[in-house]
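Hello again, I could really use a second opinion on something today. I've dropped the whole record in just underneath, so have a look.
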Amino acid sequence: MRVLKAIRADPLFGKRMLFLAGHSRGGAAVILIAQALKKDKIFVDGLFLFDAVDRTDSTLIAVQTIPRNVRVTYHARRDASLSTYFQWGARDSAQKYLDCVNSNQTDPSAATAGACQGELELARKYQRLDDAMRVRMRANTFWSPTEGIGIDFGNCGLGIEPPCNIEEGRWPCAYKETKFLGSHGAIGGSAIGEEDDAWPSDEEKTRFEIIRNNDRAAMNSVWSWMTKNFAEANLDLHQSTTSHPTLQRPWQAPFP
């Protein structure tokens, strides 16, 4: 990987603090980098993950947990509860359309005249809204006989491989996470926008405006949380290494 090569080629490699950060698949990538550095017996001082996911290979075990050569990991994850915001509308409007069709089955002329056209258009609108929100929120849905094909977008990098913090003097690796009520994009700094025509009515646009504002708030909350974490980790490491020009930190031995 180019990033890994760049780290190893740095003339100050091993002589200054090393932090890795990544959003989405980038989160999975930096976990792989940390795994590679572990094989070289190199420590990572901090790992900052923004809703890390693995979309390349669901069997890639290496990115499911953080290697224990990482001193501290902060993981901002999405709370996907907003993904079902339009689900009720999609189901309700679809049922009303089916009820209309069933009630007009005995009247062919009514069906020909498009008696249920209004119900059909409303059902299609809400289905578009529901699909759009699920995609934006990256809901952890899956295939089922009743729901069909959903979106598999589960997180990786959940926790640190054992053993960790078990014995006195062992490498004090730590994993800390917080969930935020925002989209996958918002966790990485890109809030929901109006890029498509999924909001055909004023009522739907008003609902979307609420969601967009919430997404921006979530983005700001993530940034504040991560900034605080980085400042604390950086300060703690700096204080611990000022007398160690080659960064031989007290917690570097024994290597886990």
Remarks:
- The chain has seven helices and four strands.
- The two ends are 24 Å apart (CA to CA).
- The beta strands are 19-23, 46-50, 72-78, 174-180.
